[in-house]
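== Polypeptide entry ==
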Amino acid sequence: MNRNVISIVLGGGRGTRLFPLTYSRSKPAVPIAGKYRLVDIPISNCLNSGLNKILVLTQFNSASLNSHIKNSYHFDIFSQGFVDILAAEQNVENDSWYQGTADAVRQSMKHLEKYNYDYILILSGDQLYQMDFREMLDFHIESGGDLTIATIPVNAKDATGFGILKSDDEGNITSFYEKPNYDMLEGLQSEVSEENKHRGKEYLASMGIYIFTKTILKKMFDEGAGDDFGKDIIPNSIGKYKTLSYQYEGYWTDIGTIESFYEANLDLCLDLPQFNLFSSSPIYTRARMLPPSKINGSYVSKAVFGDGCIIMADKIENSVIGNRTRIDKGSTIVNSYVMGADFYQNTTEIVLNDRGGRPNMGIGKYCYIEKAILDKNCYIGDNVKIIGGKHIPDGDYGTYSVQDGIVVVKKGAVIAPGTHIG
Protein backbone atom coordinates (compact mmCIF):
# COMPACT_ATOMS: atom_id res chain seq x y z
CA MET A 1 0.00 0.00 0.00
CA ASN A 2 1.26 3.44 -0.88
CA ARG A 3 2.33 5.27 2.26
CA ASN A 4 4.05 8.26 0.68
CA VAL A 5 3.74 10.48 3.72
CA ILE A 6 5.30 13.62 5.13
CA SER A 7 4.86 14.21 8.87
CA ILE A 8 4.48 17.64 10.46
CA VAL A 9 4.97 18.14 14.19
CA LEU A 10 3.43 21.34 15.54
CA GLY A 11 5.89 23.11 17.83
CA GLY A 12 3.20 24.77 19.94
CA GLY A 13 2.49 28.28 21.11
CA ARG A 14 3.30 29.96 24.40
CA GLY A 15 2.26 27.02 26.59
CA THR A 16 1.07 29.29 29.39
CA ARG A 17 -0.56 26.43 31.33
CA LEU A 18 2.86 24.77 31.67
CA PHE A 19 4.50 27.93 33.07
CA PRO A 20 7.17 28.23 34.47
CA LEU A 21 8.52 25.18 32.59
CA THR A 22 7.84 27.09 29.36
CA TYR A 23 9.36 30.39 30.47
CA SER A 24 12.51 29.85 28.39
CA ARG A 25 11.51 26.89 26.20
CA SER A 26 8.59 25.75 24.05
CA LYS A 27 6.30 22.96 25.23
CA PRO A 28 7.84 20.29 22.97
CA ALA A 29 11.27 21.08 24.45
CA VAL A 30 10.19 20.41 28.06
CA PRO A 31 12.21 17.49 29.53
CA ILE A 32 10.26 14.33 30.32
CA ALA A 33 11.12 10.99 31.96
CA GLY A 34 14.53 12.22 33.10
CA LYS A 35 16.30 12.07 29.73
CA TYR A 36 13.93 12.90 26.87
CA ARG A 37 12.09 15.95 25.50
CA LEU A 38 8.37 15.90 24.71
CA VAL A 39 9.08 16.33 20.99
CA ASP A 40 10.94 13.00 21.03
CA ILE A 41 7.60 11.21 21.44
CA PRO A 42 5.92 12.10 18.10
CA ILE A 43 9.23 11.90 16.24
CA SER A 44 9.94 8.44 17.67
CA ASN A 45 6.41 7.27 16.84
CA CYS A 46 7.01 8.36 13.25
CA LEU A 47 10.38 6.62 13.00
CA ASN A 48 9.03 3.44 14.60
CA SER A 49 6.21 3.52 12.04
CA GLY A 50 8.67 3.71 9.15
CA LEU A 51 7.91 7.38 8.45
CA ASN A 52 11.17 9.28 8.21
CA LYS A 53 10.25 12.54 6.45
CA ILE A 54 9.49 14.80 9.38
CA LEU A 55 9.21 18.58 9.71
CA VAL A 56 8.88 20.39 13.05
CA LEU A 57 7.14 23.78 12.93
CA THR A 58 8.49 26.16 15.55
CA GLN A 59 7.64 29.69 16.63
CA PHE A 60 7.76 30.53 20.34
CA ASN A 61 10.89 30.07 22.53
CA SER A 62 12.30 27.77 19.86
CA ALA A 63 16.07 27.98 20.50
CA SER A 64 16.37 24.96 22.81
CA LEU A 65 13.99 22.92 20.64
CA ASN A 66 15.99 23.74 17.51
CA SER A 67 19.22 22.79 19.26
CA HIS A 68 17.80 19.51 20.53
CA ILE A 69 16.53 18.43 17.11
CA LYS A 70 19.77 19.45 15.40
CA ASN A 71 21.82 17.41 17.88
CA SER A 72 19.50 14.40 18.04
CA TYR A 73 18.31 13.32 14.61
CA HIS A 74 20.86 12.49 11.93
CA PHE A 75 20.40 10.25 8.89
CA ASP A 76 23.19 8.82 6.76
CA ILE A 77 23.84 10.08 3.25
CA PHE A 78 22.17 7.03 1.70
CA SER A 79 18.85 7.73 3.41
CA GLN A 80 16.10 10.03 2.18
CA GLY A 81 14.96 10.57 5.74
CA PHE A 82 15.18 13.83 7.67
CA VAL A 83 13.94 15.67 10.74
CA ASP A 84 14.07 19.35 9.83
CA ILE A 85 12.98 22.59 11.45
CA LEU A 86 10.55 24.94 9.74
CA ALA A 87 10.63 28.17 11.73
CA ALA A 88 7.85 30.73 11.56
CA GLU A 89 8.85 33.51 9.23
CA GLN A 90 7.70 36.85 7.89
CA ASN A 91 7.96 37.50 4.17
CA VAL A 92 6.72 39.88 1.47
CA GLU A 93 3.47 37.91 1.13
CA ASN A 94 2.72 37.52 4.84
CA ASP A 95 4.09 39.59 7.72
CA SER A 96 2.15 37.85 10.53
CA TRP A 97 3.11 34.93 12.74
CA TYR A 98 1.09 31.72 12.93
CA GLN A 99 -2.54 32.46 13.80
CA GLY A 100 -3.42 28.87 14.71
CA THR A 101 -2.57 25.23 14.08
CA ALA A 102 -4.00 25.18 10.56
CA ASP A 103 -2.42 28.53 9.69
CA ALA A 104 0.99 27.13 10.72
CA VAL A 105 0.58 24.29 8.23
CA ARG A 106 -0.86 26.62 5.57
CA GLN A 107 2.11 28.98 5.76
CA SER A 108 4.48 26.01 5.51
CA MET A 109 2.92 24.40 2.44
CA LYS A 110 5.16 26.30 0.03
CA HIS A 111 8.19 24.62 1.65
CA LEU A 112 6.70 21.15 0.99
CA GLU A 113 6.65 21.56 -2.78
CA LYS A 114 10.11 20.04 -3.13
CA TYR A 115 8.98 16.79 -1.48
CA ASN A 116 7.09 13.91 -3.08
CA TYR A 117 4.15 12.94 -0.88
CA ASP A 118 0.46 12.01 -1.10
CA TYR A 119 -0.58 12.28 2.54
CA ILE A 120 0.20 14.66 5.38
CA LEU A 121 0.33 13.39 8.96
CA ILE A 122 -0.08 16.25 11.44
CA LEU A 123 0.98 15.73 15.05
CA SER A 124 1.12 17.65 18.29
CA GLY A 125 4.49 18.11 19.98
CA ASP A 126 3.23 17.83 23.57
CA GLN A 127 1.57 14.43 24.01
CA LEU A 128 2.64 11.12 25.52
CA TYR A 129 1.67 7.93 23.67
CA GLN A 130 2.99 5.07 21.54
CA MET A 131 1.20 4.54 18.25
CA ASP A 132 1.87 2.80 14.96
CA PHE A 133 0.78 5.38 12.41
CA ARG A 134 0.85 2.78 9.61
CA GLU A 135 -2.42 1.30 10.91
CA MET A 136 -4.09 4.71 10.87
CA LEU A 137 -2.74 5.40 7.38
CA ASP A 138 -4.02 2.07 6.08
CA PHE A 139 -7.45 2.85 7.54
CA HIS A 140 -7.43 6.28 5.88
CA ILE A 141 -6.44 4.90 2.47
CA GLU A 142 -8.70 1.82 2.53
CA SER A 143 -11.70 3.92 3.61
CA GLY A 144 -11.05 6.56 0.95
CA GLY A 145 -10.77 9.27 3.57
CA ASP A 146 -10.10 12.93 2.87
CA LEU A 147 -9.38 13.64 6.53
CA THR A 148 -8.92 11.08 9.31
CA ILE A 149 -8.80 12.10 12.96
CA ALA A 150 -7.28 9.87 15.64
CA THR A 151 -9.76 9.64 18.51
CA ILE A 152 -9.78 8.16 21.98
CA PRO A 153 -12.81 7.28 24.14
CA VAL A 154 -13.23 9.49 27.23
CA ASN A 155 -15.84 9.86 29.98
CA ALA A 156 -18.26 12.76 30.38
CA LYS A 157 -16.06 14.49 32.97
CA ASP A 158 -13.04 14.64 30.64
CA ALA A 159 -15.06 15.31 27.49
CA THR A 160 -15.48 19.02 28.22
CA GLY A 161 -11.72 19.55 27.82
CA PHE A 162 -11.44 18.09 24.32
CA GLY A 163 -12.84 18.37 20.85
CA ILE A 164 -15.68 15.81 20.92
CA LEU A 165 -17.03 14.19 17.78
CA LYS A 166 -19.79 11.76 16.95
CA SER A 167 -19.29 9.05 14.36
CA ASP A 168 -21.47 6.44 12.71
CA ASP A 169 -20.84 2.68 12.53
CA GLU A 170 -18.48 3.09 9.55
CA GLY A 171 -16.33 5.72 11.27
CA ASN A 172 -17.76 8.71 9.39
CA ILE A 173 -17.82 11.82 11.60
CA THR A 174 -21.27 13.37 11.67
CA SER A 175 -20.71 16.20 14.17
CA PHE A 176 -17.89 17.88 16.07
CA TYR A 177 -17.84 20.24 19.06
CA GLU A 178 -14.71 21.94 20.40
CA LYS A 179 -14.69 21.64 24.23
CA PRO A 180 -18.47 21.33 24.65
CA ASN A 181 -20.25 22.23 27.89
CA TYR A 182 -21.46 19.33 30.00
CA ASP A 183 -25.10 19.95 29.03
CA MET A 184 -24.15 19.64 25.33
CA LEU A 185 -22.98 16.02 25.69
CA GLU A 186 -26.44 14.47 25.48
CA GLY A 187 -26.62 12.44 22.28
CA LEU A 188 -22.90 12.74 21.47
CA GLN A 189 -22.09 9.15 22.47
CA SER A 190 -20.38 7.07 19.77
CA GLU A 191 -19.90 3.37 19.17
CA VAL A 192 -17.01 2.18 21.37
CA SER A 193 -15.74 -1.15 22.68
CA GLU A 194 -17.69 -2.95 25.41
CA GLU A 195 -14.85 -2.35 27.84
CA ASN A 196 -14.89 1.40 27.26
CA LYS A 197 -18.67 1.49 27.43
CA HIS A 198 -18.55 -0.31 30.77
CA ARG A 199 -16.07 2.32 32.05
CA GLY A 200 -18.32 5.16 30.90
CA LYS A 201 -16.00 6.18 28.08
CA GLU A 202 -18.58 6.69 25.34
CA TYR A 203 -17.40 10.03 23.93
CA LEU A 204 -14.77 10.24 21.22
CA ALA A 205 -12.16 12.94 21.82
CA SER A 206 -9.85 14.24 19.12
CA MET A 207 -6.21 13.40 19.89
CA GLY A 208 -4.92 16.24 17.72
CA ILE A 209 -3.51 13.69 15.26
CA TYR A 210 -4.71 14.14 11.67
CA ILE A 211 -4.10 12.56 8.28
CA PHE A 212 -5.03 14.64 5.24
CA THR A 213 -4.94 13.59 1.63
CA LYS A 214 -2.61 16.18 0.11
CA THR A 215 -4.95 17.41 -2.62
CA ILE A 216 -7.84 17.81 -0.18
CA LEU A 217 -5.83 19.85 2.33
CA LYS A 218 -4.66 22.17 -0.44
CA LYS A 219 -8.25 22.56 -1.58
CA MET A 220 -9.36 23.39 1.99
CA PHE A 221 -6.69 26.06 2.27
CA ASP A 222 -7.62 27.51 -1.12
CA GLU A 223 -11.20 27.77 0.12
CA GLY A 224 -10.08 29.69 3.20
CA ALA A 225 -11.26 27.04 5.64
CA GLY A 226 -9.88 28.81 8.74
CA ASP A 227 -6.81 29.14 10.95
CA ASP A 228 -7.33 26.29 13.45
CA PHE A 229 -7.93 22.58 12.92
CA GLY A 230 -10.19 22.09 15.94
CA LYS A 231 -12.21 25.30 15.66
CA ASP A 232 -12.37 25.69 11.87
CA ILE A 233 -11.05 22.96 9.58
CA ILE A 234 -12.70 19.92 11.19
CA PRO A 235 -16.20 21.39 11.69
CA ASN A 236 -16.17 22.82 8.15
CA SER A 237 -15.11 19.49 6.60
CA ILE A 238 -18.01 17.46 8.02
CA GLY A 239 -20.61 16.77 5.33
CA LYS A 240 -18.38 18.30 2.67
CA TYR A 241 -15.41 15.91 2.73
CA LYS A 242 -15.08 12.30 3.85
CA THR A 243 -14.08 12.89 7.44
CA LEU A 244 -13.28 9.77 9.45
CA SER A 245 -12.63 8.77 13.05
CA TYR A 246 -9.83 6.30 13.77
CA GLN A 247 -10.30 4.95 17.30
CA TYR A 248 -7.13 4.38 19.30
CA GLU A 249 -7.32 2.04 22.29
CA GLY A 250 -3.88 2.54 23.85
CA TYR A 251 -2.51 4.98 26.42
CA TRP A 252 -2.51 8.65 25.46
CA THR A 253 -2.30 11.80 27.51
CA ASP A 254 -2.13 15.45 26.60
CA ILE A 255 0.63 17.28 28.49
CA GLY A 256 -1.28 20.53 28.77
CA THR A 257 -0.99 21.47 32.45
CA ILE A 258 1.50 21.19 35.30
CA GLU A 259 -0.74 18.60 36.93
CA SER A 260 -0.95 16.38 33.82
CA PHE A 261 2.81 16.74 33.28
CA TYR A 262 3.52 15.80 36.90
CA GLU A 263 1.17 12.79 36.86
CA ALA A 264 2.51 11.51 33.52
CA ASN A 265 6.09 11.53 34.84
CA LEU A 266 5.29 9.90 38.17
CA ASP A 267 3.25 7.22 36.41
CA LEU A 268 6.54 6.05 34.84
CA CYS A 269 7.68 4.96 38.32
CA LEU A 270 4.93 2.33 38.70
CA ASP A 271 5.64 -1.38 38.35
CA LEU A 272 3.52 -1.43 35.19
CA PRO A 273 3.39 2.16 33.90
CA GLN A 274 0.81 3.09 31.30
CA PHE A 275 3.58 4.42 29.04
CA ASN A 276 6.11 1.65 28.47
CA LEU A 277 9.66 2.98 28.11
CA PHE A 278 10.94 -0.60 27.92
CA SER A 279 9.03 -1.71 24.83
CA SER A 280 10.53 -2.85 21.53
CA SER A 281 9.66 0.58 20.09
CA PRO A 282 12.40 2.85 21.45
CA ILE A 283 12.10 6.54 22.26
CA TYR A 284 14.91 8.30 20.41
CA THR A 285 16.69 11.33 21.81
CA ARG A 286 20.03 13.09 21.87
CA ALA A 287 22.93 10.72 22.53
CA ARG A 288 24.81 12.16 25.51
CA MET A 289 28.23 10.77 26.41
CA LEU A 290 27.48 10.64 30.14
CA PRO A 291 28.79 8.24 32.76
CA PRO A 292 26.43 5.80 34.47
CA SER A 293 24.57 7.01 37.54
CA LYS A 294 26.23 6.44 40.92
CA ILE A 295 24.09 5.73 44.01
CA ASN A 296 25.64 5.44 47.46
CA GLY A 297 23.82 4.48 50.67
CA SER A 298 20.32 5.40 49.47
CA TYR A 299 17.01 3.64 49.94
CA VAL A 300 15.38 3.68 46.51
CA SER A 301 11.84 2.54 45.66
CA LYS A 302 9.92 3.07 42.43
CA ALA A 303 12.33 5.59 40.96
CA VAL A 304 13.53 6.33 37.42
CA PHE A 305 17.07 7.67 36.96
CA GLY A 306 18.67 9.40 34.00
CA ASP A 307 22.38 9.22 33.20
CA GLY A 308 25.33 10.69 35.03
CA CYS A 309 23.67 11.17 38.43
CA ILE A 310 25.54 11.30 41.74
CA ILE A 311 23.15 10.24 44.48
CA MET A 312 23.93 10.11 48.21
CA ALA A 313 20.37 10.72 49.44
CA ASP A 314 18.85 8.87 52.37
CA LYS A 315 15.68 8.05 50.45
CA ILE A 316 14.23 8.41 46.94
CA GLU A 317 10.70 7.15 46.45
CA ASN A 318 8.21 7.37 43.57
CA SER A 319 10.30 9.99 41.79
CA VAL A 320 11.97 10.71 38.45
CA ILE A 321 15.60 11.86 38.64
CA GLY A 322 16.99 13.49 35.50
CA ASN A 323 20.43 13.54 33.89
CA ARG A 324 23.38 14.86 35.95
CA THR A 325 21.35 15.24 39.15
CA ARG A 326 23.38 15.63 42.36
CA ILE A 327 21.66 14.84 45.66
CA ASP A 328 23.73 15.13 48.82
CA LYS A 329 23.61 12.96 51.95
CA GLY A 330 20.69 12.98 54.34
CA SER A 331 18.14 14.20 51.78
CA THR A 332 14.75 12.68 50.96
CA ILE A 333 12.90 12.95 47.64
CA VAL A 334 9.29 11.72 47.50
CA ASN A 335 6.69 12.01 44.71
CA SER A 336 8.79 14.49 42.77
CA TYR A 337 10.44 15.10 39.40
CA VAL A 338 14.00 16.44 39.57
CA MET A 339 15.03 17.36 36.02
CA GLY A 340 18.76 17.46 36.68
CA ALA A 341 21.32 19.71 35.03
CA ASP A 342 22.68 20.71 31.64
CA PHE A 343 26.30 20.56 32.83
CA TYR A 344 28.48 19.59 35.78
CA GLN A 345 29.96 22.09 38.18
CA ASN A 346 33.73 21.81 38.44
CA THR A 347 35.14 20.60 41.74
CA THR A 348 36.91 23.90 42.48
CA GLU A 349 33.60 25.76 42.36
CA ILE A 350 31.97 23.15 44.60
CA VAL A 351 34.72 23.47 47.21
CA LEU A 352 34.52 27.29 47.17
CA ASN A 353 30.72 27.18 47.54
CA ASP A 354 31.01 24.77 50.48
CA ARG A 355 33.47 27.09 52.21
CA GLY A 356 31.29 30.14 51.59
CA GLY A 357 28.02 28.48 52.60
CA ARG A 358 26.55 28.86 49.09
CA PRO A 359 24.36 26.15 47.48
CA ASN A 360 25.84 23.96 44.80
CA MET A 361 23.90 22.88 41.76
CA GLY A 362 21.61 20.04 42.74
CA ILE A 363 20.07 19.23 46.12
CA GLY A 364 22.09 19.85 49.27
CA LYS A 365 22.36 17.97 52.56
CA TYR A 366 19.39 17.05 54.76
CA CYS A 367 16.71 18.39 52.42
CA TYR A 368 13.15 17.11 52.18
CA ILE A 369 11.39 17.42 48.79
CA GLU A 370 7.81 16.20 48.27
CA LYS A 371 5.24 16.80 45.53
CA ALA A 372 7.50 19.08 43.55
CA ILE A 373 9.06 19.61 40.14
CA LEU A 374 12.60 20.97 40.13
CA ASP A 375 13.51 22.40 36.74
CA LYS A 376 17.07 22.14 35.42
CA ASN A 377 20.15 23.70 37.00
CA CYS A 378 18.55 24.45 40.38
CA TYR A 379 20.70 25.25 43.43
CA ILE A 380 18.99 23.85 46.52
CA GLY A 381 20.82 24.67 49.76
CA ASP A 382 21.20 22.45 52.83
CA ASN A 383 18.21 21.81 55.12
CA VAL A 384 15.66 23.03 52.57
CA LYS A 385 12.11 21.72 52.89
CA ILE A 386 9.74 21.82 49.92
CA ILE A 387 6.39 20.17 50.61
CA GLY A 388 3.69 20.63 48.01
CA GLY A 389 -0.01 20.18 48.60
CA LYS A 390 -3.40 21.82 48.36
CA HIS A 391 -2.56 23.86 51.48
CA ILE A 392 -0.38 26.16 49.35
CA PRO A 393 -2.26 28.80 47.30
CA ASP A 394 -1.55 28.71 43.57
CA GLY A 395 0.63 31.56 42.38
CA ASP A 396 4.05 32.81 41.34
CA TYR A 397 6.48 33.28 44.23
CA GLY A 398 9.62 34.42 42.44
CA THR A 399 12.00 31.46 42.48
CA TYR A 400 9.10 29.00 42.36
CA SER A 401 5.43 28.78 41.48
CA VAL A 402 2.57 26.60 42.67
CA GLN A 403 -0.13 25.03 40.50
CA ASP A 404 -2.66 22.51 41.78
CA GLY A 405 -0.57 22.11 44.91
CA ILE A 406 2.56 21.17 42.94
CA VAL A 407 5.61 23.30 43.74
CA VAL A 408 7.63 24.08 40.59
CA VAL A 409 11.12 25.42 41.28
CA LYS A 410 12.19 27.48 38.28
CA LYS A 411 15.14 26.75 36.02
CA GLY A 412 18.41 27.99 37.54
CA ALA A 413 16.69 29.08 40.80
CA VAL A 414 18.77 29.43 43.96
CA ILE A 415 16.99 28.32 47.15
CA ALA A 416 18.90 29.48 50.24
CA PRO A 417 19.86 27.01 52.97
CA GLY A 418 17.14 26.47 55.57
CA THR A 419 14.31 27.68 53.33
CA HIS A 420 10.89 26.14 54.00
CA ILE A 421 8.26 26.07 51.23
CA GLY A 422 4.88 24.67 52.16
